[in-house]
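Extended Data, panel c. Modelled sequence:
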Amino acid sequence: MANLKKQTFPVLNMHCAGCANNVEKTVRKLVGITDASVNFASNTLSVSYEMDKLTPGEIRAAVLAAGYDLIIEEDHVEERQEEEQQKRYRRLKGRVIGAWLFAIPLLLLSMVFMHVPYSNEIQMVLAIPVLVLFGTPFYTGAWKQARLGRSNMDTLVALSTSIAFLFSVFNTFFPDFWYSRGLEPHVYYEAAVVIIAFVLTGKLMEERAKGNTSTAIRKLMGLQPKIARVVRNGKEEDIPLEQLRIDDLVSVRPGEQIPVDGFLTEGDSYVDESMISGEPIPVEKKAGSHVLAGTINQKGSFIIRAEKVGSETVLARIIRMVQEAQGSKAPVQRIVDKVTGIFVPVVLGLSVLTFFIWMFFGGVDMLSHAMLSAVSVLVIACPCALGLATPTALMVGIGKAADHHILIKNAVALEQMRKVNVVVLDKTGTLTEGHPTVTGWLWAQPQEEHYKDVLLAAELKSEHPLAAAIVTALQEQEHIEPAALDSFESITGKGIKVSYQGTEYWAGSHKLLKDYHAALTDVLGEMLAQYESDSCSIIYFGRKNELLAIVAIKDQIKATSVEAVRELRTQGIDVY
């Protein structure tokens, strides 16, 4: 469908797997929705809808009516969601501390100092603030769900704590009702308070886990610069990234991240594209070359004409893909969602059944036991972990993979990976260190003291990514200092030439070797063939029309790569 749109909205005010289920059901009922999925671990709603039948505002209105909320604005969504999460975490932390401050003395009073005068009344006074101040979200949440004919985790907590509290209040003020029947009245204030304290503590731990799972997304977003330097009327000015438009001219200086997808109109440099391509060697860029947002400019400066900005760049689409993958549901999660959806009503039924079984077969003190047993069923049957475990594991897994430049399309793909029997490694940086190093020198002429000094000085001025490898190798050797060069010139696509004490020296590719008509001996040719068969890059260093040396440079294989390949093969996986 041409007018079908897929969007992900952050959801607010969800605090259990049942809430996620309720939001999903609410949205699925709307006319124009083709698919809806709520991820409790990331607090997001992924929805596909027909734009001529539905708007984000109408989706939000339906979610609001169900007792939740959506962030539908597209600007600074991640910042707002993170801000809301931080606020929720702080509020929850305050509730947890407050609940335990009352729960601990209440526990001591009910278990150690139970014979203190007016013990029951004191316990009631300590319990009221916990239920009224810290337990309010459970009761309001349960009421909202009851009005819609639904139930969730709040329903269980609200029912169990209110029954325990009201039963205790009755026993506090009307103990004679039990004494006249030969039974001793018990109070369960501490049970109501500890239930709230424990559930709040569990929610705090869940909230922290959910906050940690979005780290990978935040790291990817950190690759997007916030400010762009735009060229207008011949002047450069810094503007927020959101204000950039297609065809704007953007200036990029050495060491900066590129803010847009586009092509160079002037200038040249080398750009580190490893975060997109996986290849560690920076790529040469000149007028007409295409560049991508988030990649890093090396030493040169240039101006880009913007082709794609904001949410349309390759990096933004990668971030969106990771978010969608984290929000997608594995087949096993759909089973869990179905179970969670009917879990609360089943638990409520079991609680009522437990109550009546005790009433009929409980014998002495049957009502007290019936009440306590029914409340216990409500308390221990918490479906929250059931609904959180799978999506949290998926989010952490997909997020960790993104940290290591492994992009996973969705949860189904991740679940299917257990069936993989072939692995194809197509990027050098996957198996290698990710930075080139000098692996060998071949001298065609007897070395003179100043040769390496001249080469070091020349490569220090070069912007080529392989120059850094030669500089590092020479600086590790003793008694080598950069020579004072008379001149330096970069030859695009070939290498560099310099002048030292009136003599011309050069370093670069095979093309430069040919330009200077420098001869290559048979012995050097054989050694060169060995280097090339070992996938080395070759730099030629010469003086006038004679070759002085050949430098072999290679991206070394990681120490762990051999073991990794061996481990894959041990598992019966073919590696190519």
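The first strand starts at residue 4 and ends at 12. This feature is highlighted in the accompanying rendering.
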